[in-house]
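BACKBONE GEOMETRY TOKENS
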Amino acid sequence: MKRPFRLGLTGSIGMGKSTTARLFAEAGIPVWDADATVHALYEQGGAAVAPVATAFPDAMAGERVDRTLLKAVIAGNKEALSRLESIVHPLVQEARRAFLAAHETAKIVVLDIPLLYETGAEKDCDAVLVVTAAPQVQRARLLERGQMSAAEFDLILARQMPDAEKRARADYLIETLSLDQTRAAVRDLLRRIGQNIGANHA
């Protein structure tokens, strides 16, 4: 049975991944957002709330998991992080399977996964697109948003695979210079993938 072409989308923080994912969605491509999935799991009624409350009661704010409190609880504690991952990862994978089942007739789907290479999720993709930008552009974007300090940015960056390594492993690259340029690059990539799909099923 034919299934959709799975395009993994990733990129370091501040590289324009969320914008690129939105442009795929605007082009009519189903997009699964790993971050949004985790947020939903932590909200009131989410499947992760009860097990996280049992494991980390100090991370709760009422009937939901408070991500800031959770980060403080697991900070520097590898055992706690492993415990959290054992709760959350299966739920995320289940959500991804449900997404793929719901879009099994699509030609292409995008799996937007920030830590795609770090978690080995590229094995479930037919190809990977890495979005990138110059380091000074990346830093400026993040700090201009005013949502984190330079120290917090550096800490997040240190946890992620270096951009150069991601680019070296990518099947496709888009440098996010401007919105119009990125939109054109997304359209061009969809055209190229569509041609490849057509050739493989000819």
